[in-house]
Write a structure and sequence with these properties.
The structure is a homodimer. Chain A is an alpha/beta fold. In chain A, strands 2-1-7-6-5-4-3 form a seven-stranded parallel sheet. In chain A, helix 2 runs parallel beside helix 3, helix 3 crosses helix 4 and helix 9 packs antiparallel against helix 10.
Amino acid sequence: VSTPDRTDRIRGVLSPVVTPFKADLSPDPERFVRQCRWLLSQDVGLAVFGTNSEANSLSTEEKIDLLDRVVAGGIDPARLMPGTGCCALTDSVRLTAHAMKLGAGGVLMLPPFYYKGVSDDGLFRSFAEVIERVGDRRLRLYVYHIPPVSQVPITLGLIERLLKAYPGIVAGVKDSSGDWNNTKAMLDAFAAGGFDVFAGSETFLLANMRGGGTGCISATANVNPGPIAKLHREWQTPEADAQQARLDEIRGIMQRYPMIPALKAVIARYGGDGSWATVRPPLVALTAEQRAALAAELGRAAFTMPGLGA
Amino acid sequence: VSTPDRTDRIRGVLSPVVTPFKADLSPDPERFVRQCRWLLSQDVGLAVFGTNSEANSLSTEEKIDLLDRVVAGGIDPARLMPGTGCCALTDSVRLTAHAMKLGAGGVLMLPPFYYKGVSDDGLFRSFAEVIERVGDRRLRLYVYHIPPVSQVPITLGLIERLLKAYPGIVAGVKDSSGDWNNTKAMLDAFAAGGFDVFAGSETFLLANMRGGGTGCISATANVNPGPIAKLHREWQTPEADAQQARLDEIRGIMQRYPMIPALKAVIARYGGDGSWATVRPPLVALTAEQRAALAAELGRAAFTMPGLGA
């Protein structure tokens, strides 16, 4: 079996697309597809079912149904990098196989995250079982390192073992450690060999590109997609540092609020659709006071979302 | 609606029953039912789908199928307290409703455990949505406090709110904090009002009974069920402290090894069925050296498992 080539790889900026809910807390496929279309219009790819998508508050059935609806809605599956890593091996296999059947450009895979302090042997076996059971050479698997939430880190040693066992299939990482030194260590160790490092937010987009990285997958790409994608296109221009500073300003505002409810509140406001503010438990929506303060801060910063709700 | 009475409540010692897997890592219902029968013969109830059951490595479908097979296998559903708390609201509702349909005596409910640092408001809403959607007055819900693993604690304030909103339905807690002061605080705050506190291991069984608690739900009840249940029956006798010391000796040995693989290795050895040692990733089985060392320690302690594999 030859190593798959890299020309078709997902690059650039992706958004962990926030998931809209109806009043009964069921996912709303129509608004979800509309949001995906808007993000694509801003040159941002679709890391659906990420942390910021409340993906782990959805059942596997709900995720499969949403994925079907997105593709039926005309979204190019090559632009999809769904999160498919679940606690249960059988769920991860089922969801990953379904994503492959639909032609997803890649999958972003959390480690099983209930049991803590597990060994790299056990994590290797988890990823390997999914890869073997899915059994599709077209699979492009991005491991998802987000220790502040998952509490189960992906070490450099684990990546090395996976790359050795599944070259070409193990395609990259999203590093949401928030620790640039860790991202840099991943770049230094693996980027030259064709392993794609996505920063976990645009905070490190410019540094990541300069270090040989591929792009970023960022919560705030849900609300500020165009300017983030622009920096990815123009990172080698003299304007790059100023663009990065402007991205940091907007993200800095968002980070003063609980991120997921804040993203949804901003989409609700700028898109003129209040129902977007709904979150599933255990999350809670912003209070009216938080919404007003956030809107005021974004207004002062002359923040816009061109084309949203059009 | 009157408050349900307490006479039918689950009491005593329960085991988070370890889940046997076939060589292809699928659950083995036949060996699972046999293990449940043996535990009941030792006067130990069945907290199936607990942490030590690798429940979070099973899909909701796999859990529903196992539950059906256990009841079809003749196990009294009143002795069942399945774990039904999942990350996704819809999974928790589905599994809890199924447990109620089968007549389970109670359910043990983890909070949604992916998102960290969530508010008591969000956790209250999570439990409340499950209770409301299941909509069954026979429900007896035990909240599961296991911060070392879930990283999402159940506070006393949350329990107070739940008890006020759903008296009789919110029936108790399993406290796996490992912190006796926390268990004591729960006993002092709620036990007199009819809230059943189960210690998270037999380490605190005697102290819990003396403090007004109900029993314990313990990993090591998988391998040492009879003596733990005996202490529960005899905690008011002069032999209680000596019995507790003997329980501590056996648990102390088990705790020197990774608990879940160690439980399975002991069942494999004492039941003469090596296939019991299989675990699902991300866990890994004990090494041959670990198995030998554990067997030697238990042998020196004159440990037995009467009736297992009979």
